[in-house]
Write a structure and sequence with these properties.
The protein is of the alpha/beta class. It is built from 14 helices and ten strands. Strands 1, 2, 3, 4, 5, 6, 7, 8, 9 and 10 form a ten-stranded mixed beta sheet that branches. Helix 3 crosses helix 14 and helix 6 runs parallel beside helix 11. The relative contact order is 0.20.
Length: 425
């Protein structure tokens, strides 16, 4: 059995994230992935290099993109002998791809690989109705003209009505925003607290751009150089003018378009390797992927849809003998400001930590000055499968800048799941 090796994070790239139906409306997942992978190849001089694996993901993709990872790899400049795989776990997808690559490196199965993802809600797959699909399949299998015509017996023009991807959880029919509204009410998260977190995210991301933090992480694409969602001049006062987006009638809605992530197009990727591979190519190590954890909750019967990271982080901390306060940076994905605040409040709750997590004492509070220090999803956007690799590359660079330390990554996902990871230098 091979010994476990350290997994080095060498860096990442991404294209600017933009609102859907804007600059990338006609590009699609493959085009965004090719641009991002190609930029990573350029950055690390990987032209013609054979890597162990490229793992990419996409949540909303066409059937023609059945193996996005492989197709993007073939157009990236890497050796065509580099395998590619496509993965999906909703918003946790990008982190899952990085973890999958990291685990293979740790076990000695590969020396280097790329994890990442892309998503577009500008070019979503639109299906024909189930009834029409059955007719077309039957007609395709028919052996005679008569049988083909028979497949359309009783046809109605209503069958032409297309089916768009659903925005709700299949088991509840509620959207993620509606579920998060329920969480905000349960945990007593105020509108003011949500708007404050959102404004802080924008201000920190804008400051990070100004000091050049993103200069080697974000590559221009389609004439866009910065994230299209970013609003440096936003404020709590401006955000307070927005109307509730998900609970519009009770008078108690607190989630708005300003404290929730918008539908976003974009792609990201991160390069990981063994220390030996990195040294042989003269590439400095920014940080190390130490461990990860996935968790799920029964959101159908009472748990908050986006609360699973509370469990994932608790399990991860216990296995590594760490406390919640043993980190220099906290990269918590901002699907909604309320979701971040619910998670933080849960970790502070003695009752929750005892009854739900089985802990004798609460995990406690974190230093908010260490939370999403260069902004996060509320400011830069959230192309579902692209968020994970963005956060990994961000955390690794923050640790490299600091010269050492530890970062906690936490991402909530649809389906009541959460993915967490520890990155160290």
């Amino acid at each position: 059995m091979p010994s476990i090796r350290r997994v080095a994070i060498l860096g990442g790239t991404r294209i600017p994230f933009v609102r859907n139906n804007t600059a990338y409306h006609d590009v699609g997942n493959l085009g965004m992935s090719i641009k991002t992978l190609g930029a990573l190849v350029e950055k690390f001089d990987l032209h013609g290099v054979q890597l162990g694996e490229v793992a990419l993901g996409a949540v909303l993709k066409h059937s023609s993109d059945w193996n996005l990872g492989r197709e993007a790899t073939l157009s990236s400049g890497l050796s065509p002998a580099t395998p590619g795989i496509t993965m999906q776990r909703a918003c946790g997808t990008g982190l899952d791809t990085v973890i999958a690559i990291g685990n293979k490196i740790a076990l000695g199965q590969i020396e280097a690989g790329i994890g990442g993802g892309s998503d577009t809600t500008s070019d979503v797959p639109i299906n024909v109705s189930k009834r029409l699909r059955r007719r077309l399949l039957d007609a395709n299998m028919a052996r005679s003209t008569a049988d083909r015509l028979k497949a359309f017996k009783g046809f109605s023009f209503s069958e032409f009505k297309p089916e768009f991807p659903g925005v709700g959880e299949p088991r509840t029919g509620k959207s993620m925003g509606e579920h998060c509204e329920m969480m905000a009410k349960e945990w007593g998260i105020t509108r003011e607290a949500q708007d404050e977190l959102a404004a802080t995210s924008h201000h920190r991301a804008a400051a990070a751009y100004e000091r050049g933090f993103f200069s080697d992480l974000v590559v221009p694409f389609r004439g866009v150089e910065r994230d299209g969602i970013l609003r440096p001049d936003t404020s709590v006062e401006k955000l307070a003018t927005l109307k509730p987006a998900f609970d519009r009638h009770s008078g108690k809605g607190t989630l708005t378009a300003g404290n929730s992530t918008p539908l976003t197009d974009g792609a990201s990727a991160a390069l990981l390797a063994s220390e030996e591979w990195a040294a042989a190519r003269g590439i400095p190590v920014q940080a190390y992927l130490v461990d990860s954890q996935v968790a799920a909750v029964d959101f159908v019967h009472g748990e908050g849809l986006l609360m699973a990271p509370a469990w994932a982080v608790a399990q991860l901390l216990e296995r590594n003998g760490l406390s919640l306060q043993d980190f220099d940076f906290y990269e918590i994905h901002e699907a909604f400001a309320a979701q971040v605040l619910c998670t933080l409040k849960a970790w502070e709750s003695a009752e929750f930590c005892r009854d739900k997590l089985g802990l004798d004492t609460p995990l406690g509070s974190i230093d908010r000055a260490k939370l999403n220090v260069v902004g996060s999803s509320l400011a830069v956007g959230h192309p579902f499968a692209a968020t994970g690799a963005r956060i990994v590359a961000t955390a690794a660079k923050l640790l490299a800048e600091k010269g050492g330390g530890r970062a906690l990554i936490s991402i909530c996902t649809a389906g009541g799941m959460g993915v967490a990871a520890i990155v160290e230098r």
